[in-house]
């Protein structure tokens, strides 16, 4: 799922004016589940099941990472289920990727978290590692967020965000899942979070899955209108923000018709596309105060060809496969049966 397969991936990289839109040359993107555990029970959870058996060891992970880097992977995202419930393993893997980044400065890595476990010890460790990004989930202002994620969790997450050291706070993307009930709270949430110095926001339209609540879905027509308002600076008051970035996601595999609607109504402008060094295709909409809105475009499916997800127990597939409890049957293969080169080669 783009901008990144899962999450922000750190946003947009350097624009590559000489980059040709050649699928075979797009750098590999890897998202991985370090565990299948979570401390929350969110109404919109895409992976609303817990299977804890068979976790890959740190050595199994790092061996796989090294092989993927040899194959050209440049982006690694620790997307779940809640990485900070496995702090030692999460930190070990991030440290390994930090070392690999020294060998190739273009390598980027980060994590996705609900933010409730960002306590002092783990924050100090993360600050020392300095990941390229950290996506923290907030689904609106307090009322809307707590409706989805449980009472008191907005306050816990925001208080943790306030305490982040400055250098780590710069890496944070506030990850907002756009749903029917919270669409109108985004503007207020952006202002609240902007007031504590965080300036990067990621919007992902809700996708119904077998384990989630379909009543939360926003119509594609409404999403197109809402995206257009944000891109034109009509929904957000950018005069009250400074150097802020809002990333609006579109995706070929899970919401192809939405993306087509964004193109049809000119929200995605095919005449003014950019592409960065990681193969992310996008429109850029400058706003006041050096702020900008970015909308990505994905004209083809790159699942398994240039973007993969690895489950906590080593099954390799696409993003959507992992939404299902029977993901082992849906996956291409297991790392314990085949080497990664054989699976994606």
Structure write-up:
The protein has one domain (28-344): TIM Barrel (Alpha-Beta Barrel), CATH 3.20.20. The protein is 30% helix and 19% strand. The chain is built from eleven helices and 13 strands. With 345 residues, it is an alpha/beta fold. It has a 13-stranded mixed sheet. The longest helix has 17 residues, at 87-103.
Secondary structure blueprint with pairings:
Blueprint: E1 28-33, H1 58-70, E2 73-80, H2 87-103, E3 108-113, H3 120-129, E4 133-137, H4 142-149, H5 153-162, H6 166-169, E5 172-178, H7 186-194, E6 200-205, H8 220-231, E7 245-248, H9 252-264, E8 274-275, E9 281-286, E10 292-297, E11 307-310, E12 315-317, H10 327-330, E13 333-334, H11 340-344
Parallel strand pairs: 1-2, 1-11, 2-3, 3-4, 4-5, 5-6, 6-7, 7-10
Antiparallel strand pairs: 8-9, 9-10, 11-12, 12-13
Helix pairs in contact: 1-2, 2-3, 8-9
Entry summary:
This protein has 345 residues and is an alpha/beta fold.
Brief descriptors of the model:
345 residues; alpha/beta; TIM Barrel; 13-stranded mixed β-sheet; 19% strand
| Shape summary | globular
- Category by helix and strand content: alpha/beta
Low-confidence stretches are none
CATH topology name: TIM Barrel
State the major sheet. Answer: 13 strands, mixed
Mean pLDDT: 91
CATH class wording: Alpha Beta
Number of helices: 11
CATH-assigned homologous superfamily = Aldolase class I
Q: Regarding quaternary structure, how should these chains be classified?
A: single chain
> Strands across the major sheet, in which order?
8-9-10-7-6-5-4-3-2-1-11-12-13
Number of strands: 13
Query: How much β-strand is present in the residues?
Result: 15-25%
Reading the helices and strands in chain order gives: EHEHEHEHHHEHEHEHEEEEEHEH
> What is the level-2 CATH architecture name?
Alpha-Beta Barrel
